[in-house]
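Box S1 | Example of a co-folding query
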Amino acid sequence: MILTNKVLCDLCGNCVAVCPQSCIEINHYCLKISHEQCIECQNCVAVCPSAALKQVQDDKN
Ligand code: SF4
Ligand code: SF4
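Box S1 (continued) | Returned holo structure for iron/sulfur cluster
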């Protein structure tokens, strides 16, 4: 699962632009990832200039 650090995120929109699933949105100055649609490609992690995104192990397994 991809987690967002809201303190580090400056809402630049880079991650939204590169997500193949279009599952990231910026809404009311808050970044929201739809985890059901995410395929964990990590495109968003790679382009984030603020290191605000990271992949973590999903506890559901
Ligand atoms: S890991 Fe890939 S699919 Fe998931 S939110 Fe990031 S860019 Fe989108
Ligand atoms: S790329 Fe990083 S800083 Fe930019 S909107 Fe996405 S999470 Fe926020």
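The mean pLDDT is 95. The beta strands are 2-4, 24-27, 30-33, 53-55.
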